[in-house]
Every structure is written in C-alpha cells, then in structure tokens.
Specification:
alpha+beta, 2 domains, four-stranded antiparallel β-sheet, 13 strands, 37% strand
C-alpha cells in the first residue's frame, strides 16, 4: 500500500460525506451531544454483525454518540481499526465508512461484470433494501468502483431512496456506503414536457428557446424561486436546464414550479 493511502482514505470519506450533503441540498454537522447518551449493547451487536459480513474481525475500539443539529437527532457510531459503523436512534444502519483499505494482491483486474457480481452479492449479504435496484456502476478511481442502488418509480429513480456504495471488487472489499430513505410524495407523471416548459415560461418569465434540456427525475422541492416555499418533500419533476445554467423543477403531477438550482462551473 502506498504511504499516502491512509491520507487518501480520510479525504475520500470526506468526499462521500460531501456527496451526501449535495444529494440532500443541505449542510449537516455532527457535534457531540450535550445530554449524556451511550451506544447500547444491542447497537454494538448489530455493528459486529455488519462487520462480520464485511469480513472485518478486528475488535471494537471506540463508540460515540453524535448529534446532527439539522436533523435534530442522535447518531451512534461503533468503530474498529478498519471501519466505522453509523446507526440511527431506531438502530437502523445508516452507513459504513472505511478507515483504511487492503492492498490488492491479485494480478487479475476486475471487469465491469466482475464488479457487478461482487457488489450485488455483497449488497444482498448486508441485507440492504431489497426494493432498490442497481442503477449505476462505474469506476471511481484506479482501484475503487461506485455502485448506486435506487428505488425505481415507473422508470424514474429516486436518489433520495438509495444506497451509494464504494468498493474494491478484486478484494471483495467494501470501502464505504451510505443509506438514504426519503420516500417520494407521489410517483404519478401526468404532465407532459411541453406543458412543464409552458408553466416555467409563465411562472418565471423565461423564454422557451433558453431551455437546453428537459428530463424526468425525483427532486426535492425548495425555495430557490419562491422564498416563502416551505415544502421540502420529494416529487416526480421535469428538470429544465436553462442556457444560463439555472435549473427549474416543475412538478410532473400537478404542473407547479416547486424549486430549482444552479449549475456552478
């Protein structure tokens, strides 16, 4: 293993956490709880079972409780020298994050089919949500692959109901994963693309010719175009990308503008 591998992993985990923040379009900080909380024996046993499925036999070395101010809830962490396991207050697995990885010893480089076989088997072994399906599989860097498993709503994947996994197929090794479980308000698509564009034109005084693309996806409502909008639920949406890199979300069920974003280049 290269000397800087451990340093890379700390940076890599930071990227994963940042990605989670981007997905939810919010910022979250873990801070120690003010009231006394402890990781229960049951949580430790759950973590040990997860570690066993990850082929990690190292002893538990640390437990801690952290408080997420934005979500207003505690999270419970159990660590050994290889992994940190994160659970919520209901003892549900939230994520797994590697502290270090093993060197690749095999000379055979995994193919995409090898990677798919390895991660789908490991996904089932870890008892991750069986209603999510593999929607994305590509190499993340020279060694690590990324796989996304997402809930499919009639051909529209919900990134807010998903598991994002990073792994090394040659080692049968999971590097990290995070579980998201926010259900959509609806899965009904009753609005056509042209109607969604017309709504954006009328509501935001934009020109149809400035619409670069229009795609269907699950998006979280926000106050990007309406500061009074308190809705943060998830809707099937027409995502309109504009020529100025702004984005408009039009609800594909009721044809209302529910928010937007901007692409920073």
């Amino acid at each position: 293993m290269k000397k800087n591998r451990k340093i890379f992993l700390f940076s890599f985990i930071a990227i994963i956490l940042l990605t989670s923040v981007i997905v939810y379009a919010q910022t979250s900080f873990d801070t120690p709880v003010e009231d006394v909380k402890t990781v229960s024996a049951e949580m430790i046993n759950i973590s040990k079972d997860v570690l066993k499925k990850l082929d990690s036999t190292e002893q538990i070395t640390n437990t801690e409780v952290v408080y997420d101010e934005l979500q207003n809830k505690n999270f419970y962490k159990v660590s050994n020298s290889k992994y940190t396991i994160k659970l919520d207050e209901a003892k549900n697995l939230v994520g797994v994050y590697s502290i270090t990885t093993n060197p690749i010893t095999t000379k055979k480089v995994a193919t995409k089919e090898d990677a798919k076989t390895m991660i789908t088997n490991k996904y089932k072994e870890l008892n991750l949500p069986e209603e999510y399906e593999l929607s994305y599989l590509e190499k993340f860097d020279d060694e690590i692959w990324q796989a996304n498993f997402e809930k499919n709503y009639n051909g529209i994947y919900n990134k807010y109901e998903s598991v994002k996994i990073f792994f090394i197929p040659e080692n049968n090794e999971v590097v990290a994963f995070t579980i998201f479980n926010e259900k959509a308000d609806s899965s009904v698509v009753s609005v056509k693309k042209d109607d969604a564009i017309l709504t954006a034109e009328k509501s935001l005084d934009i020109n149809k010719s400035d619409v670069v693309s229009a795609t269907l996806s699950m998006e979280k409502a926000n106050n990007y175009y309406d500061s009074q909008n308190a809705d943060t639920s998830i809707h099937p949406s027409w995502v309109l990308q504009m020529s100025d890199n702004s984005i408009v979300y039009v609800d594909a069920t009721n044809n209302n503008v529910i928010g937007g974003d901007c692409i920073n280049e």
